[in-house]
């Protein structure tokens, strides 16, 4: 490429809430560096652009693509493949792209239940009970909609991914740091991390940054944050609050536990962990203070929705990835 | 889709080095017969049982998982089998929520002497799983990485 | 695939080959597992034979194998064999795997095809696992030559003497004021009927004077740190209120003490003792102990008779409990047993009706140094019984109490029958379920007592009551029993009933076990390393058990175990250092977040937490390798050698044959 | 007013009518409502279980199911009924197969049982649910000096439930002291009364009854208090036979514990069915005195 031309930057949102895009804008004046160093060619949230424009670009012509959102529809998958083809560096950006995040909790239910909930529950005004169709005939011709998959997938379950940037959303200071890094690389001042690396995060867990006082753990009862007023000094788990911090990758500066709210695990598994939920389950269960099955179960009743709480962000990224109902279509 | 009469489940069984694995040996030495559907893995203690192992086995094609260890109070590491017990109960709850029949995960205590008893438990479990039918969980695709070529961009 | 793996499948004669098609398995491994790194696959009649082992060694040298998998019998049988073979050929022994296709395949399955298929799966599991095996070095730990013996009964005394005579220093800890244990309370010992005290006392004195034995009576172990070869033990020396430096054991203080209390320990509640006392004349050491809770001075602040009269001013009311810390290499637990409390069987009337006594109470009753000077008499202290009933298996072999046999009660009851006969000429009835006399000249003794005319009634006693149904029953204790030999209900009136109560683990056995990191069986006795081949050692390296702590047994067996434990320790001390299986957990400090989940999970307290760096660390020598912390670490920061995640996960894939079936791509239903 | 599903059992409609009266009166005084289970059937007594265990369980379960339907604890004044009900209830909780079997049978009757409701003997309800303190408040005529032999019988306490001492239970004694009477210690209070042996092997039964009366007399009891119509019949009705067989001369009054409680609560004897006894009406009057003067 010719010297005066700035390297190209793209950002895309698949199945996501948009928080990631906002997080990027939330890096304040650093956003100017992005503009100074990159030519933004594709960023649905921030600018107008058409898929066909991207399709027209030569392969690998985009240097850096931040892909946020999980893969839940044929459109998501199509764009994932497209961005992979057109980008040199494809970053799974944010929890959705990395591990499925909230959208992937749908993997616990069937597609039908999902649609029923969306289109028939009280919050929806849908008297003739219409369902979205993949293709509809209208006088002007046929219009189509992408098809929904029954199982939400992470980006790297669809296309190879170069780097992962966890967080829901990733912390702005981490984003800024990563942008800096890439710019440094462009200026030849730094090396890229090894492919497949997790960037913009630590490699220990949230407890590492958590200011709360920690002692040995013995859990006699699980409680929920809305029902008790936890001691501000002491580890939340020791107070019976299922805090996911101990299994969750650090990098967020333990914002939630510091603020008195348990970590819910948005930064995903720690380095080298195969299944986030298994780690959390194993750790928490191990310190239940009882040897009697009945009492153990009674203590576990304190966790009303274990799968939801333990795999809140990691369902798609987990070993089983989805519940049976989701796998068995219909 | 599955014809149960000919369905032969594959079951992964986790054993502890001191009681249940020895029990399996005892069964062997005593020539106690059981169905060949169960394949054992030896751990030092049921306390080593990481839920990851169970999830891995189920995700990779096992129809069920059996966890075994020393009898409560008899653990050769004093009390570690209780940790296995606690994890077992939480894991079971999670799996149930994921639509996996509770009958596909079982915990059995067996002392080194209880070869025949363990063998009987094997058969019992195998039959229970046979009745449940195959789990055939969709196999996961391994992650693959492509190294980005950046040399010419840098500078 | 960088590893070069050799696979060896054993026929074990026909043991394996009879059911598993060994050749097929071998060829399959050679071809299908090639891409997994298998460079050679052989089968052989007997892999464990020297020729079989040479096969492996040869291949390691010539083909440069980096991993070895043997499919044969159980690792518990030949793991060491094949590891040594690898070592001889210069391959780290821990880079080999032995998978069991005998105990777990050929011996338990009948369908040849299915068995062969399973053998393949098991083998492929081993292959996948071995790829992730790491070269390990066994841990070597130096042994401290001193030893600790807990419990001053005959088992502990024996162990201590053996060790001391062997030239090693021993700390002998006893929580009572004197050593001697239960044996000191007995009158005669079966079947030889020699006086218990007479044979025990010399040993006690010997232990008391032995230059290599530090005797710590009226003391208890409160803390045990460290690990085999390097234990650090804290012992609490309870205040005696007697300065043992000055005390001469003259006994004047005991004489002068005005207060008497019931002696529940040595006299089993049959007699009183002074508040300052030595439990019995031959006590070792013979310094008295002041029982503060009952002492008038400690109650009311007056008296001090003992102090006034002590010729050497040895009484010291200001004495406090003191903790001493000792370093030892090995520990013997010989804390003995408690007697089953017959009150738990209300229908036997113990504690409710007079002249119903336990075996231990009887031992005191007929002991020359006992409350009645050895006269077997009724509660009134004068009348000798005309008829005596002796009930066997009280609380033993009974699902409501203890299922196990207490081993000594039969012989003890027969001994009682003899003693009663000898001293009172009374008519004696023994009520038994079975008579068990499995010892040298035990049966002969039984015959002898039969000849003496003791009645043996086969049947479990239903109840003992004082409610007479007929004139001849008036004023007697009536034993209601079904005589199963004549198939009749019988009511036998007697003057005295002796309940041969069973043996039970010490009431605090569980806590003591925890203290030393060893486990109790369901019955509460300590678990030996192996019930047949290693009844002395425990799962905790360096901690041994001797005597009734391991299960009910008689004096000879107890003495034998005491000596055996000592011998085991001598051996260890000789070696100077011991090697431990290198199956250990370790924590990656960068990844450890200091969440402290693992801290309390280790029963061997091998995990310490560094407050300063806020990370946990595993003490490799303390770690027993159970892997519980590895499985529990939420950050995946703890890894365990020998059974790493990689090894187990790979083995799962192998067992499920993912290594040969291509993993299909992840299709998602629309 | 605490409610209970009340299962009187067959005897209380025939031989033991007085027991039934007393139960209802005393319970009312204690603020309990015994609402009788509708259309209840025999519990199978001791006879049916050896004949066909499954059917026997079902027979009992039918009553239990009806009680469960009422959502109340199941209470019965008869030791035999109590034993059958208690264990049937316990077994079908432990044994899913049994539960299934029973329920399949109950379906015919549109009934279903979970085994969730508690089964109690009336005396347990008084002692544990109401409590001795409450009872003492209701005592207007304490039966001072009345020596009562509390007779538990064998089925009230056996086999051991929740770890109580089956050989020497105390709660009956405590209850009697609470109403001012003097419980006597006697040996055979939990021994068998002979039960239905009286029909099948009369001598054996009479021998047992004899021993019981012997002990009661020896302990100078004025009256034996029973908790079971069967025990009551054996001890009372057969005293004559015993006297004939063993040349004794017992005339030991035998009364239901609720009758004695009733007296202490100042309930009119006729409301308690007192006067229907077969043995020694005379001594009964003497209670009455004890009662007035008390």
What does this structure look like?
The complex is a heterotetramer of chains A (330), B (155), C (670) and D (294). Helix content of chain A is 29%, strand content 13%. Chain A is of the alpha/beta class. The radius of gyration of chain A is 22 Å and the shape is globular. With 155 residues, chain B is of the alpha/beta class. Chain B has one domain (8-132): Rossmann fold (3-Layer(aba) Sandwich), CATH 3.40.50. Chain B is 35% helix and 15% strand. In chain B, α1 (20-29) packs across α4. Chain B is globular and about 35 Å long. The model of chain B is unreliable at 141-155 (pLDDT under 50). In chain C, the strands form eleven sheets. Chain C has a five-stranded parallel sheet with strand order 8-7-6-16-27, covered by helices on one side. In chain C, strands 18-25-19-20-21 form a five-stranded parallel sheet. In chain C, strands 2-1-3-4 form a four-stranded parallel sheet, with helices on both faces. In chain C, β6, α6 (154-165) and β7 form a beta-alpha-beta unit. The model of chain C has no long low-confidence stretch (mean pLDDT 94). Chain D has 294 residues and is α/β, with parallel strands linked by helices. Chain D has helices at 17-29, 48-51, 53-70, 79-94, 96-107, 122-137, 171-178, 197-200, 202-218, 229-237, 239-246, 257-264, 281-293, and strands at 2-6, 32-36, 74-76, 119-121, 147-151, 182-183, 223-226, 254-256. In chain D, strands 2-1-3-4 form a four-stranded parallel sheet. In chain D, α1 (17-29) crosses α12 (257-264). The model of chain D has no long low-confidence stretch (mean pLDDT 90). Chains B and C meet through α1, β2, α2 and α3 of B and α4, α5, α16 and α17 of C.
Characteristic key phrases:
B: 155 residues; alpha/beta; globular; disordered C terminus; D: alpha/beta; Glutathione S-transferase Yfyf (Class Pi), Chain A, domain 2; Rossmann fold; 4-stranded parallel sheet; 50% helix
Low-pLDDT segments of chain A: none
Q: Report the biggest beta sheet of chain D as strand number plus sense, adding barrel if it closes.
A: 4 strands, parallel
Secondary structure: helix percent of chain A: 25-40%
The largest contact between protein chains, plus residue counts on each side, is: B-C, 51 and 59 residues
The class by helix and strand makeup of chain A works out as: alpha/beta
Q: What is the total domain count of chain D?
A: 2
